[in-house]
C-alpha cells in the first residue's frame, strides 16, 4: 500500500489549478450581439406577459375608426387597422402566440428528433438506414407545403399549428444528433462504458447525449426563430388559430391595403423581424459560448 | 548594447527568450529566460517532457506563436536581424528562405487538395523565384534528393496517395526548397512507425551533412536524441536544465532531472521473469476480421485484414505483449477480444465461457471479467461525469449499490495513488498520468480476471510512463491478473511482458518469451523492428 501511494506523480493534496472554465452565461454576456438579442427577446416576453394587463379586452375588438395612422391618437399609439382594431393591442397579444408556438413546437421537434438521431447514430446498420430513409422522406417534401397541408387537414388551431411545425422541423435535429452520436460512439469513454457492461440506454443517457447538448441548444435557439417565421407565414395565409391574434395574421390582414395604410403590416412585420433577429443573435452567442473551439476569438 | 552580428559559426543566437502565457495558465511564462546558440552545421536537440516549452521555442523561431502567447523579452538573432523585432513582411521573407520548418503531422501539414509537386513549387512562387517551368524541374529534383520513389511520377500525386513516411519526406523537400541555413524540425518522427522513423532520421542527418545546415530538432524521445543529436538542450517548465554535447549529456548527465529522465527510459533488455504456470484464463483461436470499404458498381472494394487467424493463450498472472507498427492489427485484436468489434471467424474463450457466442444480457454480464485500459487519457474519461461516477458506473451496472461502489472506489483510488477527494472532481482537473490512473481504477472496479491495455502508456511522458508501468505490474501481481498489453514501443514491451507476439498485417509472425525474442529474433520483420528502435547505441554502451 505504501508503495502505491509513494508512486503518485503529483501530491493529490495540492489539486492542480482547476482549468478556468468560464460559465456559459458569462460568456454569452461578453457577446454584444447576444446581449442585444436577449434584450429584444426580454422585450417580446415582457409584451406577451403584460398584454392581458395593459389590454385586458380582446385584441379583435374594434376600438376606433379604421385607418388611424400611428402616433396621432394617444389611445391607439400605433394606429388602427382596416376594421378599427388597435394595432398595439394586437402586437402585444400576438407576441404571446408567436413565442408560445416557437417554443413548444421546437420542444416537440426535439422530442422527436433527438431520440431518433441518437438511435440511428448509436445502433447504426439497418436501424440507421431505416431511420435515415424515414427522415429523408420528410426532408424531400417542402416543409412549408407540408405544414400547410397538415394544418388544413387538422383544422386551424394553436395545437394543430404547433404539431405541424414540429412535424416539419425535426429532420435537421435528427441529422445533427446522429452526426454527433456517430463521432461520440467511437470515443474511448463510450467504449469504456460498453466494456464495463452498461446497458445501451444508460450509455446513451449518461455518456453520449450530455455531450451533444451544446450543438442541440444552439440549433434549438435557431429553430425557435424558424418556427416563429413558419407560424407567421401560416397565419398570413389565414391558417392560424382564428381565436388568437398573431403577427402573421396582422401582416396578412393588412397586405391588401399596404399602399394606403403601411403601418398595419409594418409594425407586426417589424416585430417578427426583431424577434427572429434576436433569436439568431442569441443562437450565435450560444454557439460561441458553448463551442469555444469554433468561436472566432481563438 | 548587444553586438549587432551573431558571432561567426553561430546560425541563430537565442538570448534570454521569455514567452508569456495568458493569465490563468499553470505558470506565467511558457519559456522563461532560455538562451542558446544554434551553430552552423550541427543538430541541436531540444528535449523535454510535455509542457516544457520546447515546441514554443521552435515556433518562436518561425514567428508562429499562438495568439495568446506573447513575447515578454529576449532576442533571437539571425545574422544581422533580430527576428522578434521584424514586421510581418520580414517574417514572410525569413520563413522558408532562411529558416524552414518540418511539422509533426505530415498529413495535416500538407494541403490534401494540391499535388505534392505543386506544393513544393509553391515555395518558390511565394518568394517570387524562378519560372513555373523551372519550379517544376526543381520540385522533381527535390523529390529525388529526399529519396521519394519515382520522382517524376510522385510530384503529380496527392498527399493521401503517399504513405506517412513519404509525406514526411515531401514536407522535408518543401522545407529544403529555398536552401535555408536553418531547419526547425518539431517532433518530425513522432507520428511515424519505428522503421519509418529510422529512415527519416537518417535522411535528416544525411541532408544536414550534405548541405551543412543547422538543425533545431525538437523531441521528447531520448532514443531519437541518441541517434541524431550533436548537442542537447534539456528543458523543464520553460527553463534550460542542462546543455552540452550529446555524448556528455546522455552519457554522464550532471543534473538530477536529466538523470531521472534518462533512467525512466525503458531499457531494451527484458528482465528475467519466472514463467507463469497458472491455468489458462483466456484462449483465442483462429480470430479473423476483414474490413471491406468502398467498392461500387465499377470498383472493386478495398479489403483490409485486421486479423488473420490470430491465436494465443494467456495464463493467470501472465502478461502477453502485442507489438507491431500502425495498421498491423494489434488494436483490432484487442477490440475483438473485448467484443467491441465482431469477429468474422474464431473464438475467444474466457475460462469456460465462449465470449464470441454470447449476446445481449449474457454478454453484458460476462464483460465484467475482462476490462480495458485505453490509450488516450484525455478521450477515455467522459468530461461531464465526476471521477466517482466514472469509477462506480460499472459496478452499479452490475448490481452493486452506489454506496458500496463508492466505498470500493475510495480504496481503488488509494491503490492507484490518488486521494479520495478526487471522487468529486471532473477529469479535466487531472494531469495525463493521473487520468490514466483513474482509467485503471475504473477497469479494476469490476474485479476482472483479464486486463487489456491498449497503448495504455503511449500518450504519457517517460517519467509518468515508468510510474504507470510500475503500477500496472504491481496491480497485476496483487490481483493475479492476466494482461494483454498492446504497444508499438518495444522498449515498453521488453519491460512489462512475459511473452511478446509480433504482429504484421493482421498476422502474428512471431510469439516467444520476451527474453528470447530480444536475444534471437527469428522472423526478418522482427529483426527489422528491433533494429529500428531509436537509441540502441546507448543501450549497447
UniProtKB/TrEMBL annotation, chain A:
Gene3D superfamilies listed in its UniProt record: MetI-like
Cellular compartments annotated: Cell membrane
Keyword entries, A-Z: Cell membrane, Membrane, Peptide transport, Protein transport, Transmembrane, Transmembrane helix, Transport
Membrane-spanning ranges: 34-55, 99-123, 144-170, 216-240, 261-282
Membrane topology reported for the UniProt record: Multi-pass membrane protein
UniProt domain ABC transmembrane type-1: residue ranges: 95-283
Any one GO BP annotation for this protein: peptide transport
Keyword Isomerase: no
Keyword match Membrane: yes
Similarity comment: Belongs to the binding-protein-dependent transport system permease family.
Protein name stated in the entry: Dipeptide transport system permease protein DppC
Organism: Methylobacterium symbioticum
Automatic annotation (TrEMBL), chain B:
Localization in the cell: Cell inner membrane
Domain ABC transporter: 12-262, 282-530
PROSITE patterns reported in the protein's UniProt record: ABC_TRANSPORTER_1, ABC_TRANSPORTER_2
One Pfam family matching this protein: ABC_tran
GO cellular component: plasma membrane
InterPro entries xref list: AAA+_ATPase, ABC_Ni/Peptide_Import, ABC_transporter-like_ATP-bd, ABC_transporter-like_CS, Oligopep_ABC_C, P-loop_NTPase
Highest taxon of the lineage: Bacteria
GO BP, sorted A to Z: peptide transport; transmembrane transport
Name this protein carries in UniProt: Glutathione import ATP-binding protein GsiA
Organism: Methylobacterium symbioticum
Membrane among keywords: yes
Membrane topology field: Peripheral membrane protein
Amino acid at each position: 500500500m505504501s508503495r502505491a501511494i509513494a508512486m503518485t506523480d503529483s501530491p493529490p493534496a495540492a489539486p492542480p489549478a482547476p482549468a478556468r472554465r468560464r460559465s456559459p452565461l458569462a460568456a454569452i454576456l461578453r457577446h454584444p450581439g447576444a446581449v442585444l438579442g436577449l434584450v429584444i427577446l426580454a422585450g417580446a416576453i415582457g409584451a406577451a406577459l403584460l398584454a392581458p394587463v395593459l389590454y385586458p379586452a380582446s385584441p379583435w375588438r374594434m376600438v376606433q375608426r379604421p385607418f388611424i395612422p400611428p402616433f396621432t391618437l394617444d389611445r391607439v399609439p400605433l394606429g388602427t387597422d382596416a376594421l378599427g382594431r388597435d394595432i398595439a393591442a394586437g402586437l402585444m397579444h400576438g407576441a404571446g402566440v408567436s413565442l408560445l408556438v416557437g417554443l413548444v413546437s421546437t420542444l416537440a421537434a426535439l422530442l422527436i428528433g433527438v431520440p431518433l438521431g441518437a438511435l440511428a447514430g448509436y445502433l447504426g446498420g439497418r436501424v440507421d438506414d431505416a431511420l435515415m430513409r424515414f427522415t429523408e422522406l420528410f426532408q424531400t417534401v417542402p416543409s412549408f407545403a407540408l405544414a400547410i397541408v397538415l394544418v388544413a387537414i387538422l383544422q386551424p388551431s394553436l395545437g394543430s399549428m404547433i404539431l405541424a411545425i414540429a412535424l416539419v422541423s425535426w429532420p435537421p435535429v435528427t441529422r445533427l444528433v446522429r452526426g454527433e452520436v456517430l463521432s461520440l460512439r467511437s470515443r474511448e469513454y463510450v467504449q469504456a462504458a460498453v466494456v464495463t457492461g452498461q446497458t445501451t440506454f444508460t450509455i446513451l443517457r449518461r455518456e453520449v447525449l450530455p455531450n451533444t447538448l451544446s450543438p442541440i441548444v444552439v440549433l434549438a435557439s435557431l429553430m425557435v426563430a424558424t418556427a416563429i417565421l413558419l407560424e407567421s407565414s401560416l397565419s398570413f395565409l389565414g391558417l392560424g388559430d382564428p381565436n388568437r391574434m398573431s403577427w402573421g395574421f396582422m401582416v396578412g390582414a393588412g397586405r391588401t391595403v399596404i399602399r394606403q395604410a403601411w403601418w398595419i403590416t409594418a409594425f407586426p412585420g417589424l416585430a417578427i423581424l426583431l424577434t427572429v433577429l434576436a433569436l439568431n443573435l442569441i443562437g450565435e452567442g450560444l454557439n460561441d459560448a458553448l463551442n469555444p473551439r469554433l468561436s472566432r476569438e481563438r | 548594447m548587444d553586438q549587432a552580428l551573431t558571432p561567426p559559426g553561430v546560425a541563430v543566437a537565442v538570448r534570454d527568450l521569455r514567452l508569456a502565457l495568458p493569465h490563468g495558465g499553470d505558470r506565467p511564462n511558457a519559456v522563461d529566460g532560455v538562451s542558446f546558440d544554434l551553430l552552423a552545421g550541427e543538430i541541436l536537440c531540444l528535449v523535454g517532457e510535455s509542457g516544457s516549452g520546447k515546441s514554443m521555442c521552435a515556433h518562436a523561431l518561425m514567428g508562429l506563436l499562438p495568439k495568446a502567447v506573447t513575447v515578454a523579452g529576449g532576442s533571437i538573432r539571425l545574422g544581422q536581424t533580430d527576428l522578434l523585432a521584424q514586421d510581418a513582411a520580414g517574417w514572410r521573407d525569413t520563413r522558408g528562405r532562411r529558416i524552414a520548418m518540418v511539422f509533426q503531422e505530415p498529413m495535416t501539414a500538407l494541403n490534401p487538395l494540391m499535388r505534392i509537386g505543386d506544393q513544393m513549387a509553391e515555395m518558390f512562387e511565394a518568394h517570387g523565384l524562378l519560372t513555373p517551368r523551372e519550379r517544376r524541374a526543381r520540385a522533381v529534383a527535390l523529390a529525388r534528393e529526399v529519396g521519394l520513389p519515382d520522382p517524376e511520377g510522385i510530384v503529380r500525386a496527392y498527399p493521401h496517395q503517399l504513405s506517412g513516411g513519404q509525406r514526411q519526406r515531401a514536407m522535408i523537400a518543401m522545407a529544403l526548397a529555398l536552401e535555408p541555413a536553418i531547419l526547425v524540425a518539431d517532433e518530425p518522427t513522432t507520428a511515424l512507425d519505428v522503421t519509418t522513423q529510422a529512415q527519416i532520421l537518417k535522411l535528416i542527418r544525411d541532408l544536414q551533412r550534405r548541405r551543412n545546415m543547422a538543425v533545431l530538432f525538437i523531441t521528447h524521445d531520448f532514443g531519437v536524441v541518441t541517434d541524431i543529436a550533436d548537442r542537447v538542450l534539456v528543458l523543464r517548465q520553460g527553463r534550460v536544465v542542462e546543455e552540452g554535447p550529446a555524448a556528455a549529456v546522455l552519457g554522464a548527465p550532471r543534473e538530477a532531472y536529466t538523470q531521472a529522465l534518462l533512467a525512466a527510459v525503458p531499457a531494451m533488455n527484458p528482465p528475467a521473469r519466472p514463467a507463469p504456470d497458472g491455468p489458462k484464463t483466456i484462449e483465442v483461436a483462429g480470430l479473423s476480421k476483414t474490413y471491406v470499404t468502398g467498392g461500387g458498381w465499377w470498383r472493386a472494394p478495398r479489403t483490409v485484414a485486421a486479423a488473420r487467424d490470430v491465436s494465443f493463450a494467456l495464463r493467470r498472472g501472465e502478461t502477453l505483449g502485442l507489438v507491431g507498427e500502425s495498421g498491423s492489427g494489434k488494436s483490432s485484436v484487442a477490440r475483438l477480444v473485448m467484443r467491441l468489434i465482431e469477429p468474422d471467424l474464431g473464438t475467444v474463450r474466457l475460462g469456460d465461457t465462449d465470449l464470441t457466442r454470447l449476446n445481449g444480457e449474457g454478454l453484458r454480464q460476462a464483460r465484467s471479467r475482462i476490462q480495458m485500459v485505453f490509450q488516450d487519457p484525455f478521450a477515455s474519461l467522459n468530461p461531464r461525469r465526476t471521477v466517482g461516477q466514472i469509477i462506480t458506473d460499472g459496478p452499479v451496472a452490475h448490481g452493486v449499490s452506489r454506496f458500496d461502489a463508492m466505498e470500493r472506489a475510495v480504496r481503488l483510488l488509494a491503490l492507484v495513488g490518488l486521494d479520495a477527494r478526487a471522487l468529486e472532481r471532473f477529469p479535466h482537473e487531472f494531469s495525463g498520468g493521473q487520468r490514466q490512473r483513474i482509467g485503471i481504477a475504473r477497469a479494476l472496479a469490476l474485479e476482472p480476471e483479464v486486463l487489456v491495455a491498449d497503448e495504455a502508456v503511449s500518450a504519457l511522458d517517460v517519467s509518468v510512463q515508468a510510474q504507470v508501468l510500475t503500477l500496472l505490474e504491481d496491480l497485476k501481481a496483487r490481483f493475479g491478473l492476466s494482461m494483454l498489453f498492446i504497444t508499438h514501443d518495444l522498449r515498453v514491451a521488453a519491460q512489462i511482458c512475459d511473452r511478446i507476439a509480433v504482429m504484421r498485417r493482421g498476422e502474428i509472425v512471431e510469439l516467444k518469451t520476451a527474453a528470447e525474442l530480444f536475444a534471437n529474433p527469428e522472423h526478418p520483420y522482427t529483426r527489422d523492428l528491433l533494429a529500428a528502435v531509436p537509441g540502441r547505441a546507448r543501450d549497447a554502451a
